[in-house]
Write a structure and sequence with these properties.
Layout: H1 6-25, H2 34-46, H3 59-66, E1 72-77, H4 83-93, E2 99-102, E3 117-120, E4 129-132, E5 136-138, E6 143-147, H5 155-158, E7 162-168, E8 172-173, H6 176-187, E9 194-197, E10 202-203, E11 211-212, E12 219-225
Parallel strand pairs: 1-12, 2-3, 2-4, 4-7, 5-8, 7-12
Antiparallel strand pairs: 5-6, 6-9, 10-11
Amino acid sequence: ADARPVGRSIVTSARDRILGRVRTALGRDGPLAAAAAGPLHAHLAQRPAGPRPPGNWEPVTRFRERAPALMFSVDGIETLASLPHAVARYLAGANLPRSVVVWPEFGALGWSSAGIAAQARKATGSDPVGVTGTFCAIAETGTLAQLSAPNRPAATSLLSETHIAIVRTTRIVNGMEEAWALVRSECGALPRAVNFISGPSRTADIEQTLVLGAHGPYRVHIILLQG
């Protein structure tokens, strides 16, 4: 039997045909010579920023202003040890279950003292509340950024009906450009997935009626951690 990766070969063949038509339209019969391609690669390596609006705001203040517009709720704590009680306060106010799944980095906190049953594992479709950290947050838009990793499962923020995200105030950057620069400087190679979260899951595909929780959490609560 032919064991070749058929799906991949189809994609490669389609890509080659598309690039071939582009080269033909440009009057070329093959890839650029190294001498001609060098300046283009150098330009891409510099990653020059394109035009952008003024970003002279204070990042934390701007993020607090933008987050509610995306249907985030926001709270704040001064120490990580306060996290379980802040989560308990939010769950009680929203009349939500006190059973949560958390990223492993938060597993050793005093959850039971706050009356919460916490499990450090990735979420499944039956978990009502997931607690995660964030890689960074973007002040300009109020967006959260998360990077995939074995000990930071994306399922915890994607499958839980309620997502609670911890954001360190020192990790709030001005704009998307700064967020990508932070990824490159701290990670080198990109992780398998970079997820940007701009509020609860929502859609208005059916009769232009807004529906929350269509493809993810119904609600997202942000807890800002000083430092």
